[in-house]
Design goal:
Elements (H helix, E strand, L loop, with lengths): L2 E7 L5 E7 L7 E10 L2 H4 L9 E2 L4 E8 L11 E4 L12 E5 L3 E3 L6 H5 L2 H14 L11 E5 L4 H12 L3 E5 L3 H9 L4 E3 L5 H7 L5 E6 L7 H7 E9 L10 H5 L3 E4 L4 H5 L6 H14 L7 E5 L4 H12 L6 E5 L3
Parallel strand pairs: 9-10, 9-12, 10-11, 12-13, 13-14, 15-16
Antiparallel strand pairs: 1-2, 1-4, 3-5, 3-7, 3-16, 5-6, 6-8
Family: Belongs to the zinc-containing alcohol dehydrogenase family. Quinone oxidoreductase subfamily.
GO molecular function: oxidoreductase activity; zinc ion binding
Keywords: Metal-binding, Oxidoreductase, Zinc
């Protein structure tokens, strides 16, 4: 039996280094040799499986080793990047199976670590802006978006995509270093979401925004968001509220509220699951054209339990900027 190195969550909830059987691809699965991975809050929130190991990791860049018999999009040797499917084992392993419909070609201008930080956040930002909020790139009149949590992983991509779409971007950040990062990514204005937003908007000569994209917790930001959301505007959140929120302002403004969960398409194997492939291909084109930059902020090596624990601790601190990548199992 051929084995591979991996990092798994044991039944007690501790990350450990393990040896696992190397899987073989069938159907539309690719077997990818993993070169780099990234970490996301969704990893740190996962629970252990009772009585068995669980491999996490839903941001991967690597090289196609083998393909299943039904694959048509990729061949061995292709460099790829993807987030994958949260209902299947993740990519914290030397080799990983993933449905090719969820995979894009790695941007040629990036190394594996720079590419590994992009898939989950790019898919979330793209779906949130263009599929849920319905942002168009051809506006009849100027429109604006408030991105709550613009310095984080999703916010770092959403800021760039919103700028590319022609929106005025107001990003939120609360520290000098995170404010500088959001400005570096192209936000037109940066405001502090820990302070009342309306006075900050008025000081900038702004009244409201047509779109609000909330990438932080909903409850503590709700009133602030309602204050600046325009009548008939749209709100998208990537988390559900954890306590009741006042729906009256949303009703009064005839505003729409939608939610974005990047794993919906793979989890439910929707008929348009290949959208992930298409989005990642578009993002790669924009990266190689210089329209989007990698959000890599820190590299770690090698990929092992100790380094992943350190990366998760940084995520849990709530003070990370951009993304963290881990490279190589050597």
């Amino acid at each position: 039996m051929i084995t591979m190195r991996a990092v798994a969550l044991n039944p007690s909830g501790k990350l450990i280094d393990v040896e696992l059987p190397r899987p073989a691809p069938t159907g539309k699965d690719l077997l990818v040799q993993v070169r780099a991975v990234s970490v996301n809050p969704v990893d740190a929130k996962q629970k252990a499986n009772e009585g068995q190991l669980r491999v996490l990791g839903w941001d991967v860049a690597g090289v196609v080793e083998e393909t299943g018999s039904d694959c048509t999009l990729f061949r061995p040797g292709d460099e790829v990047y993807y987030a994958g499917d949260i209902t299947r084992p993740g990519g914290f392993s030397e080799y990983h199976l993933v449905d090719e419909r969820l995979v894009g070609r790695k941007p040629q201008s990036l190394d594996f670590a720079q590419a590994a930080v992009l898939p989950l956040t790019s898919l979330t930002a793209w779906e949130g802006l263009f599929h849920r909020l319905g942002v168009k790139t051809d506006h009849d009149e100027p429109k604006a978006v408030l991105i709550v949590g613009a310095a984080g992983g999703v916010g770092s991509i959403a800021t760039q995509l919103a700028r590319w779409a022609g929106l005025t971007v107001i990003g939120t950040a609360s520290r000098p270093e995170s404010t500088a990062w959001v400005q570096h990514l192209g936000a037109d204005h940066v405001v502090n979401h820990f302070e009342p937003l309306l006075p900050q908007f008025e000081a900038l000569g702004l009244a409201s925004v047509e779109y609000v994209f909330c990438l932080n917790e909903v409850d503590s930001n709700w009133d602030n968001m309602m204050d600046v959301l325009a009548p008939q505007g749209k709100l998208c959140t990537i988390l559900p509220p954890m306590s009741p929120v006042n729906m009256r302002p949303l009703f009064d403004k005839s505003a729409a509220w939608c939610m974005e969960y990047m794993f919906t398409r793979p989890k439910y194997r929707t008929s348009d699951m290949e959208k992930h492939h298409q989005i990642l291909m578009r993002v790669a084109e924009k990266v190689d054209a210089g329209e989007i930059r990698s959000t890599l902020h820190e590299r770690m090596a090698p990929i092992n339990a100790a380094n992943l624990e350190k990366a998760f601790a940084k995520l849990r601190s709530g003070r990370t900027i951009g993304k963290i990548a881990l490279e190589s199992f050597e």
